[in-house]
Amino acid sequence: MTDDELKALVASLAVAQDRTDAQLAKTAAQLAKTDAQLAKTDAQLAKTDAKLDRLAEMYGGVGNSQGAVAEEFYYNSLKAEPVLGGVRFDFIDKNITRSHAGVEDEFDLLLVNGHAVFVVEVKYKAHEKDLRRLLEIKAVNFRRLFPEYADHEQRFVLAAFHIHDELKRVALEQGVTVLQRKGDVIESMAA
Fold this sequence. Notes:
Blueprint: H1 3-58, H2 62-80, E1 83-84, E2 87-88, E3 91-100, E4 103-112, E5 116-125, H3 128-145, E6 153-162, H4 165-173, E7 177-182, E8 185-189
Parallel strand pairs: 5-6, 6-7
Antiparallel strand pairs: 1-2, 3-4, 4-5, 7-8
């Protein structure tokens, strides 16, 4: 390479470096603008979250309240007439939490007699995820946490004030008993 070619190459590299530096300066300025906008957005989100928290406190967790109403209804109904799917029960327990070996779960209602235990999951309005959770998590955890019922018939029950027909069909096909409110009484559909 000749001296002139080397000088031309160095000059072109200097021009390219100047362009790169200018572009980097523009990018840094744009990043600073973006950071400022993100800070404003974060502040607005924090205000919105605070408002939502205040609203949730004001209304007392409507979803939780509805769930508590449904649980009380089914507990009181089954306590008064401890029969489900033609099976009479000796005991009914509610809101049982048990923990063992890193597994913890809460069960809404347990109906027990000398040969059967029915595990009842209560929802105000049942969804597909509730059925999946009952079968894939609650049932597995119940068997781990309550080994004393290993020799009992174990049935899983989905109780709800509202359950759409397709979900009811799927639950029954999967061996889950469905409880629905029918006026002031319970209608049981055994799987």
